[in-house]
Amino acid sequence: ETGVTQTPRHLVMGMTNKKSLKCEQHLGHNAMYWYKQSAKKPLELMFVYNFKEQTENNSVPSRFSPECPNSSHLFLHLHTLQPEDSALYLCASSQTQGAREQYFGPGTRLTVT
Amino acid sequence: ELKVEQNPLFLSMQEGKNYTIYCNYSTTSDRLYWYRQDPGKSLESLFVLLSNGAVKQEGRLMASLDTKARLSTLHITAAVHDLSATYFCAVDEGYGGSQGNLIFGKGTKLSVKP
Predict the structure, then answer these.
(1) What share of chain A is helix, strand, coil (3-state, %, to 5)?
(2) Can you name the residues that pair with B6 across neighbouring β-strands?
(3) CB of B25 within 8 A of CB of B70?
(4) Are A92 and A103 in contact (CB under 8 A)?
(5) Once rounded to an integer, what is the mean pLDDT over residues A73-102?
(6) Is B108 on the interface with A (CB under 8 A)?
């Protein structure tokens, strides 16, 4: 595997379910990001981790819970989501937070029913 | 609060024609990015513009940055069908030291027709 990978690629879940999204980067980077891409809104930054420490939480509801056990892995734990949370969730990484380029994964298409 | 506006949001072009996509942003920043996204795919980095007057070119695409006007342009020369995609500009919230927090425009959906 190369670059940034995300699993699953597609996820359908009910409002009472608990699920997790996984992101893995194979680039030796130290910063990782979660973004949300909704149909009619700009791409929104959700969380940033730099050297495993959370440095940004962009007023994200608590039903989204990030976890970064090491610099290569990032999770987004989901529980009691709402239909408006349906979106494409993109993970990205960079050498460190603020480094010149962020590299994006393919995304997880989430549908909440 | 930094806001990023792109226009147009939709662009239908004929092959061989030229056009420009505009990206305006509301507060001072010295880093601007252009990304491409194909349907169902992730974002691909096209250009990173780091200083006033920066101009970068790759194939039929050329990007420029005017930090005084808070404006970046993405110029398409002699469009071909393969350029059909959505193009995003993104601006770093930090100034004089990047925070890595990118604020994205809504994207310009480009369709190039024969």
Answers:
(1) 5, 55, 40
(2) B23
(3) yes
(4) yes
(5) 93
(6) no
Lowest mean pLDDT of A81-90, B40-49, B79-88, name the range. Answer: B40-49
pLDDT at A2: 73
Q: Which of B43, B51, B91, B93 should be substituted to probe chain A, the one whose Cβ sees the most A Cβ atoms within 10 Å?
A: B43
A–B CB contacts, 8 A cutoff, strictly below: 58
Question: Using CA atoms, how far apart are residues B69 and B25, in angstroms rounded to an integer?
Answer: 9
Considering only A63-67, B1-5, B70-74, B91-95, which range has the smallest mean pLDDT? Answer: B91-95
Q: How far apart are the first and last CA of chain A?
A: 32
Distance CA B106, CA B34 (A): 12
Q: In the predicted model, is pLDDT for residue B100 greater than 70?
A: no
Q: What are the helix and strand counts (H, E) for chain B? A: 0, 11
- In degrees to the nearest 10, what's the CA dihedral of A105, B26, A97, A64? -60
Q: Which two tokens stand for residue A36?
A: 């949300």
pLDDT in tens, B30-77: 789 999 999 888 899 999 998 888 999 999 999 999 999 999 999 999
Give the 3-state secondary structure of B26-63: CCCCCCEEEEEECCCCCEEEEEEECCCCCEEEECCEEE
Q: Give yes or no for a cis peptide into A8 (omega within 30° of 0).
A: yes
Give dist(CA A3, CA B51) in Å, integer: 28
SS3 A105: coil
